[in-house]
Amino acid sequence: MISGKGMRPGDIVTASNGKTIEIVDLATLTGACVVALGPSIAGVFTPNDDLAKELFQASEASGEKFWRMPLEESYWESMKSGVADMVNTGGRQGGAINAALFLKQFVDEKVKVDAR
């Protein structure tokens, strides 16, 4: 039985950082990267070039494959909402990029990544 805390399309939720999100879809975007890169290559989204370099070196040392994916900021337009700060999913195309742009909204700009 679905509880009273269940979400449905049209709901607006407030994240812990105060941003509001209009729920438009309850599906996940986790499969979008698998569609793009297949089952044996991980997609990495980061605006931090130093972190990407460290991840590439770790990838070569471990044999785990990854590919740096673009954070195409223009795709953010499809995630704007008329009733909240954003919607929880973008258009059908660029699903993995849309998911990364959504998550980026919850990373404080002041956070420094220690890419050892």
What's the SSE blueprint?
Layout (H helix, E strand, L loop, with lengths): L11 E3 L5 E3 L8 H7 L4 E3 L4 H14 L3 E3 L17 E2 L7 H10 L12
Parallel strand pairs: 2-5, 3-4
Antiparallel strand pairs: 1-2
Protein architecture, described:
This is Cytosol aminopeptidase domain-containing protein. The chain is 27% helix and 12% strand. The N and C termini lie far apart (47 Å). It is globular. A three-stranded mixed sheet has the order 1-2-5, with no helix packed on it. Strands 3-4 form a two-stranded parallel sheet. The protein is α/β, with parallel strands linked by helices. β1 (12-14) and β2 form a beta hairpin. The mean pLDDT is 86. The chain has helices at 31-37, 49-62, 95-104; strands at 12-14, 20-22, 42-44, 66-68, 86-87.
Short summary of the structure?
InterPro entries: Leucine_aapep/pepB, Peptidase_M17_C. The protein has 116 residues and is of the alpha/beta class.
List keywords for this structure.
27% helix; alpha/beta; two-stranded parallel sheet; 116 residues; 3 helices
Kindly give the count of domains.
Answer: 1
**Overall pLDDT level:** 86
The outline comes out as globular
Order of helices and strands: EEHEHEEH
Q: Which structural class do you get from the secondary structure elements?
A: alpha/beta
